[in-house]
Write a structure and sequence with these properties.
25% of the residues lie in helices and 31% in strands. It is an alpha/beta fold and 229 residues long. The chain folds into two domains: 53 residues, 2-Layer Sandwich (Phosphorylase Kinase, domain 1), CATH 3.30.200.20; 168 residues, 3-Layer(aba) Sandwich (Rossmann fold). It has a seven-stranded mixed beta sheet with strand order 9-8-7-10-11-13-12, sandwiched between helices. Bound molecules: S-adenosylmethionine (SAM).
């Protein structure tokens, strides 16, 4: 385990950094000390264990590397995470929100098996094997209003899926983060048009776009929209 000086990010709730603020390394405080989820590094600083957080592996980390002006993380919030995969990003979110809840939806059984293995010691993650296109199907598991929806399903009709889930679960003024991969929606149309169309779907459904963040520097062909209900 390395010894590096780690400090709080000055702007982002419960995220930690080392190095210069203009180009930091990101970390989250490990909720399950000694346990790794993928090939992240475990680092101790002043007796506390952190997990390194690679923006090439996690689009949420890529968002933070691009200095978002919207503050969407707060103590104890309830999140609905669509497209959880095996939990790379979900577990970092779990580190950030020890008093919150993350409902982690994933429809691929294999990924779900890994997700369950990776998160069984984390009491703030509830894995849900379901298709995000049909939010009503998992309503018997989520019995609370949601503060934040994070969507990374890499599907056509991404915005429509967000809106369906947002309309069903998100509280008024709740935040929606939509990760758009242009090629998974329509490989023929130009990326810019894809982003515009997805944006329009959100706006016409009553979501106010607060910010659009280009994360091409870490994830090719990806743009992120942050919206409020
Ligand atoms: C790009 S990966 C997600 C990576 C993950 N967010 C992370 O950062 O660790 C997309 C995931 O969405 C899942 N997915 C795609 N369509 C879905 C759907 N309709 N419902 C639930 N999960 C879906 C895929 O199986 C895949 O695991």
């Amino acid at each position: 385990m390395n010894n590096i000086k780690i400090r709080k990010h000055p702007k982002i709730y419960n995220v930690f950094i080392s190095g210069p603020l203009s180009n930091p390394r990101l970390y989250t405080r490990n909720l399950v000390p000694g346990r790794k989820i993928y090939d992240e590094k475990l680092i101790k600083s002043e007796g506390i264990e952190y997990r390194s957080w690679d923006p090439e592996r996690s689009k949420l980390a890529a968002i933070f590397m691009n200095d978002p002006s919207t503050n969407f993380l707060k103590k104890g919030i309830k999140c609905l995470y669509l497209g959880a995969a095996s939990g790379t990003t979900v577990t970092h979110l779990s580190d950030i929100l020890p008093n919150g809840i993350i409902y982690a939806v994933e429809f691929a059984e294999r990924s779900m098996r890994q997700l369950i293995q990776n998160t069984s010691e984390r009491k703030n993650i509830i894995p849900i094997l379901a298709d995000a296109r049909h939010p009503v199907d998992f309503a018997n598991i989520i019995f609370t209003d949601i503060d934040l929806i994070y969507q990374d399903v890499a599907q056509p009709t991404q915005a429509e899926i967000s809106v369906k889930n947002g309309d069903y679960y998100l509280k008024e003024k709740g935040k929606l983060i939509l990760v758009i991969k242009s090629q998974s929606i329509d490989s023929v149309s130009k990326s810019e048009q894809v982003y515009k169309d997805e944006r329009k779907v959100l706006e016409e459904s009553g979501y106010l776009i607060q910010e659009s963040i280009n994360i091409h520097n870490f994830a090719k062909n990806h743009i992120v929209l942050i919206a409020e209900k």
